[in-house]
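dude i think i finally got it to work??
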Amino acid sequence: MINKLKTLVSRAACDFAEARYEEGVTTYIEFDNTGLKTANVHTYRGGNVRVLVDGNFGVASFEDIDRAGDYLEKALDVARLRKGELDGFGAGEVNKDVIVVELDEVPADVPLEEKVEILRSYNDLMLSVPGIENTRISYFDRKDRKAIVNSDGTELDMTVPRVGTAFVPIAVEGDLIQQAGLNVGGIKPFGIYRNREEDIEAIAKKTAALLTAEPVKGGVYTAIINPELTGVFVHEAFGHTDEGDYVYKDEHMRGIMKLGRRFASEIVNFVDDGTLFGEGGYIPYDDEGTRSKKNYLIKEGILAGRMHSRETATLMGEPLTGNGRALNYKFAPIPRMTNTFVEAGETSFEKMLEAAGDGIYVRGARGGTGGETFTFTAEDGYYIRGGKLAEHVRDLKLQGNLFETLENIEAVGDDLFIPDEGVGGCGKWGQSPLPCSAGGPHILIKNVQIGGR
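look at this
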């Protein structure tokens, strides 16, 4: 594979050429309350060639590597159509490496029948909990081999297995429908799915309990958000805002997102780190051949960096970060997150409750929209009264301005946790779901707008 890509790149008459090729096998399994819906295994293979001519990229994807030369010519034709923005191409890393991630039990190698029976037992367990009338289980695993070669001399051959599952029990009482979820997965062995009865039953009981929780009263609260919701905030609200292409293309955001600007107190540290083995966003190298790194986005409250592809790093005159990622061979790399999280602070959860006084504790995330203005839907929460957890509440939506919220962070917990990756992932420009992870500790924030149902 590497030799064919080297031959392809050597034929490219251009300023820069890059070729990627990947092949692998994927399993998909789905259950709902009626039982097994889908169980299939399929193989895939394909490649991508990208060339730079007079500052403009041309890109073409292909499936038959023996016809890659035809698509190289198509990419060159596209690149020659106009002059691009790039005045040269900033120096990239030259890496040569072969990586095969070894696990005790690679999920893709486990028999399909065994996977189906384990998931069936968990589906039945969720349905046995009073109040749970519907379920959804979505499972995938993948063993992917990817090769990257470019005209600078990079030669990478990487085999990385992944797995992810979302367990979603759905509680129903009349017209009231509630759901919660448990994600299990990452760069992990299949053994993580064995003996999870206690966790599966707990998430089903949590969901059923939402039927008796009271709807939250909307208002402005001092709020504690849990690690899962912290991860959603740092990924959706801040992370996408700090991706190089977003900042470069938006004059308004360039004025705001200036390196060295203070956005929060010195207790706040945001990180993107693709080197965290086992997490969903682990990548030894990005899809441009740049070694993965730990990058501080906010350090001690100050904007310290952003996430770049090689193109945006060149355009903005900033260092490579190892964030040039593509969903698969059909796409060119763009700036994307890996494992994005808030570093642990020094405050215990108990101290946060005391500091909150009368406020609200918000848990979990069902989704939402991010950016400078964000809206997130939580799974549930509790009122805080006199520094103690009180009534159970549901139907919570958090709304706010990213930069005001950063200023309002009062305490950062000492309990860093990055939840497992499920079947979802990050979406951007039609490239979804890209494997990522996000998390952090509990965080105490003042003046949080909470909307009810």
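The radius of gyration is 23 Å.
im so relieved honestly
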